[in-house]
Backbone:
């Protein structure tokens, strides 16, 4: 980025402590908009997901991670959104790894589509959903992008526990 582009994106300086207001580039906003639209449709971040099918969850997490990785590949290294996207991707990676450890089957054995929930799955799911959801809200606010439907509201709702 050249100095002219940098100066055009500065929208103010506050004093006495100092500080800068930053206007994201149009390209960054477009990348974030596309990602918000892609992730908003993923049922894993909604609290009313329904039954937990671990194989589908692992596939969905892979798709979500691909979307985030694609966005990271397009963003400039100094893009303000990078840290949030990296945190989202890490939360997805950790949850996917956790699921893969919990639901291992010997080679050649049939894998059940819906297996009983193992201890910690709902808690790990909620932790991932919270990180991804909060980052989506922050990204949408930073870039003045409306979240589809009632997603911002539903992100704040914790998933029901296994007991209730």
Residues:
């Amino acid at each position: 980025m050249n100095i002219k582009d940098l100066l055009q994106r500065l929208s103010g300086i506050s004093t006495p402590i100092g500080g800068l207001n930053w206007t994201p580039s149009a390209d960054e906003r477009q990348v974030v908009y596309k990602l918000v639209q892609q992730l908003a449709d993923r049922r894993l971040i909604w609290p009313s997901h329904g039954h937990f099918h671990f194989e589908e969850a692992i596939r969905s997490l892979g798709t979500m991670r691909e979307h985030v990785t694609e966005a990271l590949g397009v963003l400039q290294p100094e893009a303000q959104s990078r840290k949030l996207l990296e945190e989202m991707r890490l939360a997805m990676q950790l949850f996917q790894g956790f699921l893969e450890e919990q639901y291992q089957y010997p080679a050649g054995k049939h894998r059940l589509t819906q297996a009983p929930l193992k201890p910690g799955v709902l808690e790990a799911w909620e932790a991932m959903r919270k990180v991804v959801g909060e980052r989506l809200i922050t990204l949408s606010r930073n870039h003045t992008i409306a979240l589809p439907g009632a997603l911002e509201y539903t992100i704040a709702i914790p998933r029901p526990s296994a007991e209730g």
User: Anything to note?
Assistant: The first helix runs from residue 3 to 9.
